[in-house]
Amino acid sequence: MTLLKEPDFGTPAREGAATVELTIDGVNVAVPPGTSVMRAAKQAGLEIPKLCATDSLEAFGSCRLCIVEIDGARGTPASCTTPVAPGMVVRTQNEKLGKLRRGVMELYISDHPLDCLTCSANGDCELQDMAGVTGLREVRYGSGVDAGANHLDAPTDTSNPYFDFDASKCIACSRCVRACDEVQGTLALTIEGRGFDSKVAAGAGVSFMESDCVSCGACVQACPTATLQEKSVIELGMPTRSVITTCAYCGVGCSFKAELRGDELVRMVPYKDGGANEGHSCVKGRFAFGYASHPDRVLEPMVRDAITDPWRKVSWDEAIGFTARRLREIQAAYGQGSIGAITSSRTTNEEVYAVQKMVRAVFGNNNVDTCARVCHSPTGYGLKQTFGESAGTQDFKSVEKADVILVIGANPTDGHPVFASRMKKRLRQGAKLIVVDPRRIDLVRSPHIEAAHHLQLAPGTNVAVINAISHVVVTEGLVDRAFVAERCEDFEQWETFIAQPEHSPEAVASITGVDPDELRAAARLYATGGNGAIYYGLGVTEHSQGSTTVMGMANLAMATGNIGRRGVGVNPLRGQNNVQGSCDMGSFPHELPGYRHVSDDGARDVYEQLWGTPILNEPGLRIPNMFDSAIDGSFKALFVQGEDIAQSDPNTAHVFAALGALDLLVVQDLFENETAKWAHVLLPGTSFLEKDGTFTNAERRINRVRPVMAPQTGKQEWQIVCEIAQAMGYPMHYDSASQIMDEIALTTPTFMGVSFKKLDEVGSLQWPCNLENPDGTPIMHEAEFTRGKGRFMETVYVPTTERSTRKYPLILTTGRILSQYNVGAQTRRTANVAWHPEDILELHPHDAEVRGIEDGSMVALSSRVGRTTLRAKLADRMPVGVCYTTFHHPVTGANVITTENSDWATNCPEYKVTAVQVDLLVEPVSSTAERETVPAS
């Protein structure tokens, strides 16, 4: 397509019916109450000149270009700040208005560089456009130095790695400041000075890079001139065509316009019609796409007989033939169940579906698992048991109707920043916030936001806290008994359980470390404060009782009636772009696509008839089972699609032992990652810019992923899987990714109404999408739960076996940081390393002092399974006795430290609780971290 220019209505839309009728330039128009005259005119096809107005921001009224005349009104009011009224008669064009507008433009141009032909924004500059629209032909005040005092020598701030701020071109319209405030919610920018001295500032005398700016790009997008401009546009020129696609980072699933000049990607611009992001972005999706063209990319297949041999580049035919032959040989020698695969949450639904089909139809077993095993498998289990569906209940927009927001075990501003911006906007409007987290995350207190309650619990005590909140709800008469009676079952048994004294806030205080009065107040607020919404992350699921906590939150939501409408719900903030989709597609060893158990004869029959081969009715191996079986010699070959399990999975020594025991490891990825060091076959993968397919985000939204460029490897990943299947003797072929989605829709009830054609027409769909819900389902469980009645489950608190000891007296918990993503394979190959060049250990000042550790000291971090070194940062975000680090850099290898403990129901690793010791390193160390592992038994 050509360059897509989205319409700008000047001011935001207002909800409601179009009941206000007015006349603009003789055109009758009807709009909702509260709509601005400017927006009403645009809806009628009439353009009013503007500079300070844009429809992502509330009206400001500073530029005075949008003036109009209104019958019965004095003067020439600004159309952006003037709301419509019934019977209003408006004129937007006449000689008087034209003269006033030209006068305004003269003043702007007199203090602006006249370098349009060489300016990076030439052709995409609203100031340039408005000069033409207003008919400006001369500047009576002169320009440049001839105009007297000016700002033409103002400096350019080039400190940010992704965009420049050229102050000489700033018109002080405040759009960037307002975007930072209203859209992003960081409030990093301001207008400094008054009158002629007014200027945009990113803090008190600091650069953009030194300021609180989070580089989301909202200011760049809002800027009407070249003041704030992407460095890529300055270097490559203005793009000429657009492709709408979906971000490949977190589970928010933002829609973007990939803008190209020829075949070269110039920039990624958030798409206003994106259902998940509505025109907003974060630093990763907006700017960190350079990894796709990084020289580290593997572009040719490579094989080797042993991991001690050097890689040998081969043709696709040889690589596929080698892989297929070795897989068949291993099965012949060790049995049908001796091989398996791990699917990726970074690939498309279609690619994941192809891998699980290869395992079931070609390998002849159910030995397929996904990275969701190590992140959100407890979500699938817990919500399935209580609600009957393994997914979140709401769309992201629902938070705009929440009155009380409970955030537990999640750090949205770092992990899911675009959703966090939505949430912060609602909080600034007056919604109340409860944070349950061992760490004082930014949401606890940040500009214009302060949590009503921060329950700073001890790591590993989520179940005890949630039970205590429910105890208060039950014992203080706060249950929504009408909802429970109509919609739920097994309540009486649960009520008796949760009302027991051992669940009271006072009884669990010694376990959780949470003040009982604070917990009671939080419980009352959630139960009585209006619409209550729960949002949670890996701080819930990555525990030995992750599944129990998910069920506990579901119990709490049902007991208070906070299910089945906007503003409520239980919502997992999933970590990777397609972790929801990888689960939907049948990546678990016990489930076929659509979460149907492999023992379900009817579900199996659908695939057996279509695929022409029997499917085992017994679950296959989970990832931990694969590792254990590899070490004991019964599991011999593994296909790993787009996951770096050697870096991301816990107890690195155990993972290394398992990988080293395999006769064949096939890795399909963009880079030679840590796992590939153990591989015998390395198949190059495709970046999201080359993929054709779909992603499903955390709100069940299915988005198209469209190829911006041809695959650099010559093949799509699903094609490679099909060719391996064919080489193994199974006729698996598709002409396109759309054919794979057609098969998914044919066999999976929740995807029945999904097709590429439908997605291209409507933009996105939220499953279930079927005959009853042809346009998707934004809100789940509105009239009834998927399982019929919501089921209350007893949630007994069982302390984790991972506890601090005399040898390992501290507790380590882990998380993410804004600028990096997952194991860092993508973001570390971008300029994002400017913000986070290494993993850091956050240590409470008291714990540091007793160990002689100062801020910036190199320390040794050790647990019972391993040791690593990294730099310490003194911070009081964590309570005494708890430390925190990220896991983005393989040189640190945080998972050298984490143990084999896991969730009782799903084997999701307990990343969030590891007993450790921290020691000051007194011997000299290199600049890179050192790792040691305890040999696996």
Task: Characterise the protein shown here.
By secondary structure, the protein is α/β, with parallel strands linked by helices. The protein contains 28 helices and 40 strands. The strands form 11 sheets. The protein has a 7-stranded mixed β-sheet with strand order 14-13-29-28-27-15-16, with helices on both faces. A 6-stranded mixed β-barrel has the order 34-38-35-37-36-39. Strands 21-18-17-23-24 form a 5-stranded parallel β-sheet. The radius of gyration is 29 Å and the shape is globular. The model has no long low-confidence stretch (mean pLDDT 95).
Write the layout of secondary structure elements.
Layout (H helix, E strand, L loop, with lengths): L19 E5 L2 E5 L5 H7 L25 E2 L18 E3 L3 H16 L15 H8 L22 E2 L5 E4 L8 H10 L5 E3 L6 E3 L16 H5 L5 E3 H6 L4 E6 L8 E7 L2 E7 L12 H5 L14 E2 L8 E2 L2 H19 L4 E5 L5 H15 L4 E3 L6 H10 L17 E5 L3 H4 L1 H12 L3 E5 L8 E2 L2 E2 L2 E3 L6 H14 L5 H7 E2 L1 H8 L6 H8 L3 H13 L3 E5 L1 H4 L4 H14 L10 E3 L6 H6 L6 E2 L3 E2 L3 H11 L11 H10 L4 E5 L3 H4 L3 H10 L2 E6 L11 E4 L8 E4 L4 E5 L11 H11 L9 H11 L8 H7 L1 E3 L23 E2 L18 E6 L24 E4 L1 H5 L8 E5 L3 E9 L7 E5 L27 E7 L10 E3 L4
Helix pairs in contact: 8-25, 9-25, 9-26, 10-19, 13-16, 13-17, 13-19, 16-17, 22-24
